[in-house]
Design goal:
alpha+beta, 10-stranded mixed sheet, 22 helices, 29 strands, globular
């Protein structure tokens, strides 16, 4: 690519002297050049960037530059979301999403917090902004939708890297809009749970040395996110940084991964640490107050103006009055009570914790970092080279009066409902080096993290979990219990074990429903063959399995009608089907399934691999699919049915086949021997450019559940280097 003279040139084999850019001051271009000179990016034969910098800040500069090369659009979108500026790109329909974010994310405050940050953290944020701005300066063909320049303080808006932050998870947009428009608005199908949504979260497993063949601790890293949610890369520096794994687009730390001594896997937690307070509002002398015990407390009010893109491309604005009580911003009105939302917002400490964990050396140093207590939504599965393994609960957990049910709105006028500081790490559920020899989490409760050695629920407040058990947890217990011979390869086998425990529970019940039909019932003849097929099934997924097709589509047929009811009852969908539906309903759904499969595929006897497909047509942020375009069969299923390997797929208005958009995304297994050894795979490929050879070069491996070697050490890269260069070159 030709670089205009006004841009900086940074060529690996030649001088990196800056060329003055008219759009940037000399001090900035000189700083960019210095970073670029001290950074080397090595792309391996999968396109994965191995970034080395002289300093940690250099590594940050190079890592974010490499991410931008791979998928700048996703970086920008993540920061439009985090900063509450989506409407500037997508129009007024996104204004409520932006308002929800800006109730907490105040740019003025973030700028102040940037100034308050320790010098070492500011240096990393400076390098992050420099790397993105340098990328834009050296790639004039890239046209950002909104963010033409990045400022260091922006990094504080997006500090955790999990699947939708606390703000997004906790505040339904329909309720926020109803409050501001002063009218009733029904919850959406997604908010009620009626619309199909793959369970978001992850699997993490750590195995102690005594239960492995080679006597080394093992770690499974298996996030379940939307596809293409994270970049796979390595970051090293001469200041001791050497971290490999998955980095959420736009962030400068490895979110789920490992270094030479420790590995960390985050799974979305069921801890209840986001609370809603019903405020009794009183108007007095033209101002708003809330009752709090025997007193009235003032409600603060400020105006917030948000921009949005009009259809003609011009900018419009809307201004909102924002109300806050001491519990937090007001987000809804329930029966005349204003609802204030309380959640963690500690951006400096959260960013510190996310970075510092990547440089830990053992469990003790990891826990020292965790003392910041700025991880609110993630359980952690941990392993290290000393052989230590652990399940750790999120560290941000407010102390509350356990007589109240904080899963519901509590009375903000009662001082007894207030938060009373934070739990210490010692007072949280954990499982450290359990005798059973393993720990796991599958977004289920902590009371099953280590089999018989798990923490006991009676020892903790009930707000420590609101998820309960799930069928992936049942599955994890089954593949881990009683084994002492694990290797990297057999851990991969466990992660892709084909058993579906939800159907192992449901199908016998469905067979009993059928067997109880009177002899003269016409459903006996109509369903005889499908029932016979299910009767012979071993409850395992597979490419050629017709029974998997029948069972999954049957379950999805019931889910389409009863998913919201299951959510309202706080039940897993399989448990709701088994407990709350009658035999006629279950059998009717099987009849509907036979009709649907015959209509869509010409026969109800269709192999699962012919239905369940992986397809990557382009890099649009909202995926779309085409039955006539090439795609790959995928044997594993939705996590709903207990598949540890999750593939969240569904048909679309223009398709009969199911296409996956979430579930297994980045998958890795790590062995902590004298030298780290790891295998990994990323959904699709590393690059977001359809013209790149790395756009879909991992798709077939991904669909097969096959992992490739990770080139962690420089000598492992020998013979696998596609390109080595400095940023800008």
């Amino acid at each position: 690519m030709t670089r205009p003279a006004l841009l900086l040139a940074a060529l690996f084999a030649s001088s990196l002297a800056p060329v003055q850019a008219s759009a940037a001051p000399a001090s900035e271009t000189a700083r960019w050049s210095a970073h670029a000179r001290d950074v080397t990016i090595t792309r391996d034969d999968w396109g994965i960037a191995h970034v080395h910098g002289t300093t940690d800040a250099d590594a940050v500069f190079g890592a974010i530059y490499a991410q931008a090369e791979d998928d700048f659009a996703r970086i920008e979108m993540n920061y439009l979301t985090a900063l509450g500026r989506v409407a500037e790109a997508e129009g007024e329909s996104a204004i409520w999403q932006d308002l929800r974010q800006r109730l907490f994310v105040d740019p003025t405050r973030l700028k102040a917090q940037y100034s308050e940050s320790p010098a070492w953290l500011r240096a990393l944020m400076d390098a992050w902004a420099d790397g993105l701005n340098y990328y834009l300066a050296t790639h004039p063909e890239v046209r950002p939708r909104v963010l033409t320049r990045f400022e260091p303080w922006m990094a504080l808006s997006f500090t955790e890297g999990s699947i939708g932050g606390d703000i997004e998870r906790s505040i339904p947009l329909s309720q926020l809009q109803a409050f501001y428009e002063k009218r009733e608005i029904a919850l959406t199908a997604l908010e009620t749970g009626a619309a199909p949504r793959e369970p978001s979260g992850s699997n993490g497993i750590a195995i102690a040395p005594g239960h492995t063949k080679n006597g080394h601790a093992l770690l499974l890293i298996n996030p379940h996110t939307s596809f293409y949610f994270r970049s796979e890369l390595q970051m090293t520096s001469e200041e001791g940084l050497n971290a490999y794994g998955a980095s959420t687009w736009g962030q400068f730390f490895i979110y789920q991964g490992f270094n030479t001594r420790t590995g960390w896997m985050h799974t979305s937690s069921g801890v209840d640490n986001i609370d809603s307070f019903a405020e009794t509002v009183v108007e007095k002398d033209g101002a708003h107050f809330t009752r709090y015990g025997d007193e009235l407390r003032p409600v603060t009010e400020e105006s917030l103006t948000l921009a949005y893109r009009r259809e003609d491309g011009t900018k419009g604005t809307r201004t909102f009055p924002v109300y806050r009580t001491h519990h937090g911003p007001v987000v809804a009105d329930h029966g005349g009570k204003w609802i204030a939302q309380a959640l963690m917002w500690k951006p400096i400490l959260a960013l510190e914790q996310s970075w510092l964990r990547t440089k830990t050396e053992d469990l003790a140093s990891y826990l020292d970092v965790a003392e910041r207590r700025a991880n609110s939504s993630n359980d952690t599965i941990f392993a290290d080279s000393k052989g230590e393994i652990a399940y750790l609960h999120p560290q941000f957990v407010p102390v509350r009066d356990d007589t109240f049910d904080y899963t519901e709105v509590v009375d903000g006028a009662d001082p007894a409902t207030d938060w009373q500081g934070l739990h210490t790490l010692e007072s949280l559920p954990s499982a450290i080096d359990p005798g059973v020899g393993w720990v796991h989490n599958t977004n289920d409760w902590p009371w099953d993290a280590a089999g018989p050695d798990s923490p006991r629920p009676e020892d903790f407040p009930k707000y420590m979990d609101q998820f309960g058990p799930n069928y992936r947890g049942v599955h994890a217990d089954a593949v881990l219990d009683g084994r002492a011979d694990f290797t990297l390869e057999t851990l991969v086998g466990a992660a892709f074990d084909s058993h579906l425990p939800a159907f192992a529970m449901l199908i016998p019940q469905l067979l009993a429903d059928y067997d109880a039909l009177p002899e003269e019932d016409p459903r006996r003849a109509a369903l005889a063959e499908p029932i016979s097929l299910l009767r012979r099934w071993d409850h395992r997924w597979g490419y050629a399995s017709q029974a998997t097709s029948l069972a999954v589509v049957w379950g999805d047929t019931l889910g389409a009608t009863y998913r919201a009811q299951a959510k309202a009852a706080h039940l897993q969908l399989p448990d709701y089907i088994a407990r709350d539906l009658d035999a006629d309903t279950r059998l009717a759904a099987l009849e509907d399934t036979v009709v649907r499969l015959t209509r869509d595929f010409g026969t109800w006897r269709v192999a699962w691999g012919d239905i369940n497909r992986f397809q990557r047509l382009d890099n649009t942020l909202t995926p779309h699919f085409d039955d006539d375009a090439p795609s790959l069969p995928v044997p594993f299923t939705s996590a709903v049915w207990g598949s540890l390997a999750s593939f969240g797929a569904k048909p679309y208005p223009n398709t009969a086949k199911y296409y996956g958009t979430s579930g297994n995304s980045f998958v890795a297994v790590v062995e902590f021997g004298p030298k780290v050894r790891a295998l990994a795979v990323t959904a699709g490929g590393e690059s977001g450019d359809p013209a790149s050879p790395h756009f879909a070069d991992q798709a077939e491996l991904y669909a097969q559940g096959a992992l490739r070697p990770v080139y962690f050490y420089p000598e492992e890269l020998t013979g696998h280097v596609e390109k080595r260069y400095h940023p800008g070159g």
